[in-house]
Structures are given as C-alpha cells and as structure tokens.
Amino acid sequence: MAELLRSLQDSQLVARFQRRCGLFPAPDDDPRENGAGPGEGAARAPGVDHHSAVNGKGGGGPANGLLRVAAPQLVMYIGQVAKDILKWPRPFTPPVVKLEKRVIAEYGMPSTHAMAATAISFTLLISTMDRYQYPFALGLVMAVTFSTLVCLSRLYTGMHTVLDVLGGILITAVLIILTYPAWTLIDRLDSASPLFPVCAIVVPFFLCYNYPVSEYYSPTRADTTTILAAGAGVTIGFWINRFFQLVAEPTEALPVIQHIPPLTAGMLVLGLTKFMVGIVLILLVRQVVQNLSLQVLYSWFKVVTRNKEARRRLEIEVPYKFVTYTSVGICATTVVPMLHRFLGLL
Predict the structure, then answer these.
(1) Active-site positions?
(2) Is the distance from CB of 204 to CB of 230 less than 8 angstroms?
(3) pLDDT of 211-240, one tens digit each?
(4) What interhelical angle do 220-243 and 65-86 show, nearest 10?
(5) Which of 134, 169, 240, 262 has a CA 20 to 30 Å removed from the CA of 38?
C-alpha cells in the first residue's frame, strides 16, 4: 500500500500525462523558478481571488439552493485547511510543467478543485433526481464527466499529483455519505429562525479568522474567506427571499416533479440577457464594497492607502474579503432577481 501511494504521488506520473496531452517544457524554462516550494513562492506570489460562485433558486425539498451552497462550502473549507495542515508539496518541476504559477505558494493535498467538482456535480444529481424528470443514467454520466474533466485538468496544469486528486474525491465522497441523512434538515434551516442570518455570518467569519497559521503567506486563507463569504451571502439571500416572501413557495406536496423545458432560441436570448444584467450589477457591487471596506480598514489600522502588502494582514484580508463577497452573494440571490422582475425578465 505504501508503495502504491508513493507511485500515485510521483511527479513523473503527472509529467507523462502532460506529455501524452502534448504539453512539453519550454526550452527556456528555469527549473529553479518553476520548482519553487511554498516558502519561495510565497515571497512573490500575488494575492489572487479564486472564488467559486454557487447559485440556486429557492424552493422546498432536497433541491433547495441552501444545500447546493452548504455542500461546496463544507468540502472547500476542509480541503483548504487540510492543505495547510498536511503541507504536502505540489508536483516538482522538472519534470512537471506548471501552468498556474500564481498559486505556487499553495500546498497540494488534497485537490480542492477535485473536491468542489465532485461535491457540486453529485450533490446536484442526488438532490434533483426525485424532483425533475430526466434519465438518471444521463445525469450520472454528466456528473462523472464533469468531475473527471476537472480532475484531469488539475493534472494537465501540473498543479496536483494523482494522489492529490484521488484524495480530494475520496474525502468528498465520505462527506456526502456522512451528511446525506441531514440534507432535509439543512434545506429547512434558512426559514427556521430570524436568528439564522446571524449564525450564517458569525460561524464562517470565525472559521476564516481562525484559519490555521502558515509559516509563509499563501492565498489559501484568502480563497477560503472568499468561498465561505460568498456562501454566507447566498444563504442570507435565500433567507431574505423566504422571510420577506419575495419568492413563491410551491403549493403542491413535495417533492414537486417538474419537466425540464426544451431549450429554444428565445430562452437562450432571455438567459443571456439576464446573465449580463446580473453580472454587471454584481461586479459593480463587488468593486464598490471592496473599495469602501478597504478604505475603512486602512483608516482604522492606520495603513497607507493602496498598500497591497497590507491586504495580506489577517485583520485586513479576512474582513474586507468577507464583507465584499457576502455582499456579492446577497446581491446575486436577492437584488439581481428583483432587478430582473423590475425589467420584466422573469
């Protein structure tokens, strides 16, 4: 077993996969630069925003959007924390070609991309198979295909070993199995109490602010804050929609079996229009809230304005990202649908 694990963690295995895909190292690649470890990469890796936007529409039953938000949040937080606890390096260069040097300061095990892809695709499959009429075999193939392509992309970009990817899939599978009995309860939490929004903010913020301390700066804390904050915003948005009855609840007994309508040109144009209106508003909210929160924090902690290094400080990075992406989540689930309704797009 130990020999098998070592072989799955071998960088040569990733390199061979890249060569079969036609990816070869450039003649002028500097092995010292590309093969830098977390400590070396931390000194020059810029702060980046890797965020996962998860959305869903309200409604009862297992297909509720809260479940589709909670699952990726849980697996991503566990995966990000596991990286900084295990501190397993990414594949070495040479022989691997690394295409995403901006995250070279992060550790490798487990692959959070593999975890997120597996969680999103299979949670969506399991929670909709009794609600929408579609062939289960087709849904299973689509879930497997999506998660497999994401996993293979992590090998192609040289960001993870095969063991990292398999570890991410296994952790997610275990979490889905353990949490499945509580899915119905999770779906009903967002309308259970007026105090729910407080918990939805306090718990994720506490987890982000107490993120494991690393010897070197890496973007994992910032990424984790972005993910949990966006999830908190979406969760609060769902609660607002239900508490203030901004969305219609199903009148039939659950689960409500719905037909998936065929895709037409009119639906495609309407969908693209709604997307463009929503994304413009979300980007505007993100920019305004980010600038305001940074100004307030810079003034509070007496930091020079536009000091990018200061953004990495715990007391600045976590609050500004949390406020920014919580606002984005609320905007996406509450304000954008209201704007769509006002413009007659619903």
Answers:
(1) 113, 160
(2) no
(3) 887 777 777 888 888 888 998 898 888 888
(4) 160
(5) 169
